Model the fold of this input.
Amino acid sequence: MIDRLWQTIFWLSGLLLLLLLVSILSYLIYRGHAAISLEFLLSSPKGLPLGAEGGILPAIKGTLCLVVLAVAVASVPGLATAVYLVEYGEKNSLSQIINTTVQCMAGLPSIVTGLFCYALFVVRLGFGISLLAGGLALGMMVFPVIVVTARDALLAVNNHYRLVGIALGVSRRYLLVRVLLPQALPGILGGMLLAMGYAAGATAPIMVTAAAIATPTAGNLFEPVMALPYHLYILFSQQVSLDKAYGTALVLVSLLLVLNVIALWLRQRKGRGV
Amino acid sequence: MREKTGILCLLVAGCSTVLLLAVIVFMALESWPVWSVVSPRDFILGTNWNPLAEPIQLGIGTMLVSTLWTALGALMLAVPIGLCCAIFLAEFAPPWMTNILRPVLNLLTGIPSVVYGFLGATVLVKFFEVNFAMASGESLFCASLVLTIMVLPYIISTSESALRAVPAAYRQASLALGVSKPYLTLRVLLPLAKKGILGAVILGFGRAAGETMAVLMLAGNTMVLPTSWFSKGEPLPALIALELGTSVVGSYHYQGLYAAGLVLLLFVLLINLLLALFRRERRSGVN
Done:
């Protein structure tokens, strides 16, 4: 009897998760679909206050710029760190320290990253509130994501390749560049997409380093940019327009879901054989 | 046998370690002058935040209480639910169900905090306003509810792997003894996975305490000392996000915000180091 009860509780809690995601998505679609039109997606913010009559093109562009910049900044150091952790630092104390650091960086509250980047890039280095400062802040935020996903991808490569490489007397670098990295490529790319999604949704760091309520252009490194999550925050908190806020949220979430699904698919795939 | 590539990678990896150190040092430097105006004790325990007044009042006690209240409240809800989900995934779910739930967990973490905050503010807050006749529905409780959903995936995946890490011999022994499956999970596996689950709780706490957007949009943002779960408050990250833009660089206000950031940073770092320690212990315990 008690066993039955527990079993039911476990099943219910599992179903609760499913219900949670489905209800969040369907509610967003239900409230947001009316706001979305080609014009909403492809024009600049209009109306008074700005944004009341839609238009999120600059925000979409700005988010894309921020995200690409962030991943571009973080990918090379992230990949190099992962390669060191898996291929060179075979469980020595140094790699343990690096592992712990990466874990701590992953746990860093995003507002603290924002504070640090505000003081360093915006104030001290004089970038001002700008795309560059925001991209660097997001890059710092996604760095641990890239390290961890690339590390897992490299760890998942069958160890036989390493042994065969060593047995054939191939140099470590050749083995890495020609065998291991191609094998781990889908996982690494998947990790980068995951990082992109993570960066695209982050609001706190860009709120203090990069975001503007409205800008005519996007893409200039030293100008503030609009971004989807910040636009959503403004539409809601300044009570500009609830309908447009739902539309923006739907666009943002759809974008992230697509990124995440591709990332999941890539990370489950095996790299090409040798 | 080191080569150029290895050394290069080590250099880059080392830089990342230094970056974390740089964050701490930088935050300390930016907030340095403020400690001559207010002692660390007064800063943490003081309940008045009035950086523009004369004499200046800098105390983050109220905000700290709000932070702890929302985060602990979220844990109170998320830990039981999360544990049940983890047990379900590790022991009871048929493979097809696991194949559905795993991506679901990933997608739940993929939804950004600003969207969670927005939905919470438009749905939950409205719900409280309408059904409980509150003037405004924002409260620490609302923030906790939304934080619960946000930390749930982390708690689930960490405790699930802790449950899976329990050696199979225990399962076989229980099966041989004819013990029922719920008994096995609750009385045998759960106590064995205790450490890993505690790690999951700590991780969730760190996430909940550092989360900015959701609490910013849901907690109500008033600087009164919260007296119950249902009063309003302003958690630390919300304070920083709200006031950084308007503070004059170099003023005590600005430095005070960095000092608040430093407190938050050290707090979360401590939690993470604790977590790392836990993981290491567990790994050596299993071997």
About this structure: Chain B touches chain A through 86 residues (CB under 8 Å). Chain B has a mean pLDDT of 87. The radius of gyration of chain B is 22 Å.
